[in-house]
Amino acid sequence: MKAKILIGLTALLIAGTPAMAQDAKPVSLDALLKLVQQGRVQDQKEAKEREQRFQADKARQAQLIVEAKGMRTSEEARSERLEDQFDVNEQKIVELQALLNERLGSLKELFGVLQQAAGDARGQFEISLTNIQYPDRGEFLGELAQKMGSTSKLASLEDIERLWFELQREMVESGKVVRFNGKVVTKDGNEVDKSIVRVGLFNVVADGKYLEYVPETGRVVELQRQPQDRFVKTAATLSTATGGLVNFGIDPTRGQLLSLLVGEPSFRERVDQGGLVGYVTIALGAVGLVIAVLRLIWLTIVGMQVAVQRRRPDAPSRLNPLGRVLQVYADNPGADVETLELKLGEAIIKEVPRLNRWNTLLKVIAVVAPLLGLLGTVTGMILTFQAITLFGTGDPKLMAGGISQALVTTVIGLCVAIPMVLLHALVSGRSRRMVQVLEEQSAGLIAERSESRHGGAKAGA
Hints:
Elements: H1 2-16, H2 19-23, H3 29-104, H4 107-127, H5 137-149, H6 157-173, E1 177-185, E2 191-199, E3 203-206, E4 209-214, E5 219-222, H7 229-240, H8 256-263, H9 267-273, H10 275-311, H11 321-331, H12 337-355, H13 359-391, H14 396-460
Parallel strand pairs: 1-5
Antiparallel strand pairs: 1-2, 2-3, 3-4, 4-5
């Protein structure tokens, strides 16, 4: 047990000795005690050195405190002097400002008007088409307005003359048609150099296309959609003109009317707004139109054949309805009147389905087309009210756009139904006339047979 305590004490003593003492390994208890004594002496030496450094730093810190107090006293005195000087300067500024206002007199009102004019001109010039050619005006006007707003600066005579010049140049340029080279951003996003024609402050065109000036970026952009062809043609004429009078579609509202024309949907877009119901209605109309045209052509040809046959009743032909009816009369020369009437009526009945073929389908299309349009309108109105339920009625354009799309199907249905009604009436009228011709010829043949029989009977009597 004592050996263990001795070993632990030895390890503790070794751990507490300096590094130099630890390098020497004791071989006996005397050597161990010697190492412990050396470490103790070393520790006392280091503690004494630390104490001396602390005493030296304490004296230096006291000196620094004294220096800081002296500097504080000096700065406080300087602060008092600066405050007195500030009060004097502030009083002097008030006196000078009063003197400035007194000397300005009526000129102060003039500078106020100049400041307002510079600000208004800057706002107008930034959105003006002339800013494409003179983009540096905004910077000058902004500096002038800022200078006039400051009480320490006044506008010089050169500044006033420059403002007058810019206003005068804007008025002059508003009445000119000018051609100049500039950069244009095309539809695909590329910026190319083009010859631009500016018509006053209203429109800019290039290569026969209308352009748009974007004040935020200062660039000239080609419209993604051009207005109607009649306006584009005038733009093309203006782009290639070298002088004289040229017809041109000008926008007096500086772009508002043009944006409305561009935003107006085309015929194809109107049709697309009808959706599936609109496509079905148009398809039915196309089918009905093809049928009506074919029937009219066929009835016209048959009518010509019947007209020829009426002039040659003695040579019936089976290639036309009247010829087939006359052939029945020729095939029954000895039949009595009643029998002949029945046979001719049967022949006419056989011809009626051929003459009235597809008329019923045309009538059905004429009736179904507006019903399909009404179906599309009701469906569109349901979608519109659903959108109102979700987003509210805060945006009138949302409701107006949905209602206009819903009414497109009704327009399509009426555009299909009205021609179908007219075509059905035309085809049916021609068919009825053909049947009427057959009935008239049949009645004439029966009357002729009846007269021949009655005449023969009288002669026999």
